[in-house]
Amino acid sequence: MSASDSPTQESYAATDLKLNRSAGTLTITWKDGHVTVLAAGKLRKACPCATCNETRRKESTQLFNILSSDPGTGPPQMTGAALVGNYAIQLQWADGHNSGIFDFKFLRSLDNDDS
Question: 8-114 is classed in which CATH architecture?
Answer without folding.
Answer: 2-Layer Sandwich (3.30)
